[in-house]
Design goal:
By secondary structure, the chain is mainly α. The protein has one domain. Helix content is 91%, strand content 0%. Helix 1 runs antiparallel to helix 2.
């Protein structure tokens, strides 16, 4: 495998990782901002109040988008394994 091929493979792996992680991280960010805003408006500074909604939101996204995320990871892994004979001398 050439250096260019290795760099392209690394770039594709990072792109797939970002694509799979983006929905979960985005929902966690939105839930955190929403809970923080509610805490500021109500002046309730309870630690569990900020933790539980984020866990529920991230869990819901993981359940809803889990099959799509697994499909993306399996697609990348299958392409990686199909190309393996070309890369190994």
């Amino acid at each position: 495998m050439t250096l260019d091929g290795l760099v392209a493979l690394g770039q594709e792996a990072m792109a797939v990782a970002a694509l799979v992680a983006l929905p979960v991280l985005g929902v966690a960010l939105l839930a955190g901002v929403a809970v923080g805003l509610v805490q500021v408006l109500t002046q309730v500074q309870e630690a569990t109040l900020s933790f539980v909604p984020k866990v529920v939101a991230v869990g819901a996204v993981a359940v809803l988008l889990g099959p799509w995320m697994a499909q993306q990871l399996l697609r990348f892994t299958a392409a990686l394994l199909r190309g393996l004979p070309e890369w190994v001398p």
